[in-house]
Amino acid sequence: MAATISQKLGALSYVLFFSAGAWCWLLFFALLYLGGFYTRTLLALYCAYIWFGPGSTPPRTGSATPFLRGLWVWRKCAEYCPMTLVKTAELDPEKTYVFGFHPHGIISMSAFISFATEALNVSKKFPGIRFYMLTLVQNFYIPFIRDFVLAHGMCDCARATCLHLLTRGKGNAIVLCVGGAREALLAQPNHFEIVLGRRLGFVRIAVQTGSALVPVLSFGENNMYLVAKPEDGTFTARLQRNLLKLLGLGFPIFRGTGMVLSSIGMLPYQGPIHVVVGAPIDVPKFDGDINSEEGKRAVSEAHAKYVAALRGIWDAHKGHYALERKGTLKIVDLPPAAALRH
Ligand SMILES: *[C@@H]1O[C@H](CO)[C@@H](O)[C@H](O)[C@H]1NC(C)=O
């Protein structure tokens, strides 16, 4: 079904938000240039706070404002795809949770809409759970955007922040796009390439805090854009890899559709997205040294269970939600023995 203007506006709002890193700088320099003495003083104080002051160190924890999480544009954005949140198990509000979200896709729209807004009624679906979507530390150095993400209850993904959130209260859940920028570069329509094999950080946090791990697989996130995948060894491929190393950011080359013309634009293509939230995997709390042999074993056991659970979601739902899949769920960087299993 063709999208209505309001649904397109919803999707556009998210694209603008995701690319805000760029235009917030423009706004900042425009204000600096055009502003008078007071504006410039305020901007200077603000920057001092976010770059050198208390705002420059973790934990940077937001407090969610129901108004922003409930914004009309986010609901329209969910309708645009349309997007659904599929619950497969209850979550006990007496526990804490580490959610892993896969795949990152180009703009992680379904992660944000599912867990940083109420467009899919996440708080009603999982009563008593407070969701903290985590994002790159880099975002918190950019004027204005940091306050916008904080007001959605988003936090930085530093270790200190994760530990803080998970020891502060029952019912807290952090949500991480585990594969990050590297996974963004692998996003291709109907492909499921997940960067997870060597990502142990989020599991370590679950083990240290005794939080349950919850795998989330988004069917459709990778279908939103047409992505050019440069051949290995070409200039573009090397540039992407170097930017990834240098800045920790992925710069995929992609094409979407437009508000007016369908042939050009940054809007994602329409297509159903099903965000499947798996059953929680209980992880016993490990109090000793996490870098000891015993600690490492606890982490790798929990990681193996997590990988198996993610494959379980794939097997159970690919027949409904990934009808046009090309190949199977591919987990990148797994040790050879585990990779052979499928
Ligand atoms: C969310 O809840 C409201 C009120 O209960 C309901 O009208 C709406 O359809 C729900 N939205 C979704 C996407 O489930």
TrEMBL record:
Pathway the protein acts in: Lipid metabolism; Glycerolipid metabolism; triacylglycerol biosynthesis
Compartment list: Endoplasmic reticulum membrane
Broad EC category: transferase
Membrane-spanning parts: 12-34
Alphabetical keyword list: Acyltransferase, Endoplasmic reticulum, Glycerol metabolism, Lipid biosynthesis, Lipid metabolism, Membrane, Transferase, Transmembrane, Transmembrane helix
InterPro entries on file: DAGAT
UniProt xrefs under Pfam families: DAGAT
Bilayer disposition of the protein: Multi-pass membrane protein
Enzyme Commission code: 2.3.1.-
Family stated for the protein in its record: Belongs to the diacylglycerol acyltransferase family.
Protein name in UniProt: Acyltransferase
